[in-house]
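Lay summary. Proteins are chains of building blocks that fold into shapes, and those shapes determine what they do. In this project we predict the shape from the chain. Here is one chain we studied, written as its sequence of building blocks.
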Amino acid sequence: MEILPGTPEPLGATWDGEAVNVALFSAHGTRVELCLFDAPDAPRESARVVLPERSGDVWHGRFPGLRPGQLYGYRVHGPWAPHEGHRFNPSKLLVDPYARALCGELRWDAALYGHDPDDPARPSAADSAPWVPRGVVVDLSPRIGAPRRPAVPWSRTLIYECHVKSATRRHPGVPPEARGRFLGLAAPAVIDHLRSLGVTAVELLPVAQTSQDDHLARLSLPNYWGYATLGFFAPDARFATGARGEQVAEFRRMVDAFHEAGIEVILDLVFNHTPEGGAQGPTLSLRGIDNASYYRLHPGDRSLYTDYSGCGNTLDTARPPVRRLVLDCLRHWAGEMGVDGFRFDLATTLGRDPIYFDAATRFFELVRQDPLLSRCKLVAEPWDLGPEGYRLGAFPHGWSEWNDRFRDAARRFWRGDAAQLGELARRITGSSDLFGWNRRGCAASINYLCAHDGFTLHDLVSYAHKHNEANREGGRDGHHDESHNWGVEGPSHDRRVVRRRERVKRSLIATLAFSQGVPMWLAGDELGRTQHGNNNAYCLDDETSWLDWEPDEDRRELLAFARRAFALRAGNAVFRRRRHLDGEAEERVAWLRTDGAPMEPADWNDPDRRSLALHLDASVADAADEAGHPQAARSALLLLNADAHAHRFALPDPGPRASWREVLNSGDPSVAPLVRADHVTVAPHAFVILERGIAA
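And here is the predicted shape, written in a compact code that computers can read:
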């Protein structure tokens, strides 16, 4: 085989139209072998080729005889010295972290472990090649005729968080061969549904190539959600219909279909840990390539790993090779693959330099300066398990954050908890106490009621306790949700219980739709989706996780309510401010008691008060969105009653020749006529929205 020196850039196996250039970072390795395979199920490589050149810490070579579709992996030689942080073992086939596609599944076997099972201080001699996926050389030629990116302003964004398979596995409008796949998610029936809700961005649970961990392998359960990334650049083959490497083309086709419909694509990426686990974990990729360069190791014993993720290890983004891996990966997905933004799992780890979080760390600065990434939507899950790991509100300008305090405030208020008015008021007005310090505005707050991790909206009002027995961990997994069953645990045939639950769900939807910030919606909540009380279905690839697209009458009514609520939000700029409401004149933004008087300090601190109103004058709305498009605004009055009995709300004077019009009522989903009286009675656990209009 002809072997040329090649170049150290770019990393990975890259087809340039004439040859494949191969480059791998390994600062402490002593030799790198490229292993070539003829078939996905071949137990051994057909050839091993030593990469001939080393430039700095990058090993490289150029191969004119290789073509797209070639299967490959690495074996890296170097010292076996765990206490010094080195775990090189050339008997282990290693996945290229820069592979653009992977072929074959990781199958668990003792040969995957770099250490001898009988003596962890010694390396294992067993060859892991039969059990490890192979990288695939992919032709990433520029796409011709790709649709223009939607570039939706944050103030107009509605995010729909979903799993590729869950959303489409049971959809009757998706062709059977595309169900559970990228192409199924891009089917017209799915896109039409999203557009009917007003969705402007889909946030996909991890679609980079994942792997099952040894814990789930022992339980014969899948890593369904995919939070264990093995191939950072590779679309997961689980979601492809075609042959090896076709997942790349199919992912691009999905993105194009969403862009054609005006919908952006946001990826959930996992850069906090890998499936290699702790000291007793397998050697699959980074551990065998250069363990000491990629992972956070215990300073007192470098054979041990610092675990800020809860998964056994933590990638060290304070180190240049890890920062480069993350930045190269983001550029790949945003550039070659066309995505519009990213949600970062346990994102506090990205800002630890070296140990504690710092919003001015090098990683954030590099993202801010990057001409491509700085234009992407960047969303942080603002916590991890490390020291001072909960960092809500601490991320830099240009980043948005999952706001779990919004989630908890909305849940507790509508559950009827005492002393919730002040916290709720801060959350529905954009959480300026959290995000105002660096003037990020309302878009910094990603408001949500439910997410993949936790109860669905239906289960939130149907179960007081988690029911995770199907996960086969004795019900110990999953956190405690702020839930309430409203009379009976689980399904009920009592129409009073069902009506109460549906009313609370509608009130929660209205709270999300009419709060300042960016709303995020969990896929299927509009359809009354249930996981039967399981609040951690990360390992269930069955009807528990798949959306049911044939709702009953109650759920059809819920869908219609959600559509109307988000349409009202989209049509009135008073609910979509860019800047926080702080400092606005009292007459333009007013918190009112049920008798119409302004809220006083004693009212905010009254533990028995569960009702209040918010008056937003049309003049507080932005005249134009971020793109300069003019926006319509109407004064609005929000009436919230979380009490167990109805309340009579006095209405402020709408002004001459004007009246209040009821546009949404979670107590009665039907649209009411103009309100000419000076008061409105709001049902128990209900949210009423009024807009100011011209009197008839």
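What the prediction tells us: Residues 579-694 form a domain with the Immunoglobulin-like fold (CATH 2.60.40.1180).
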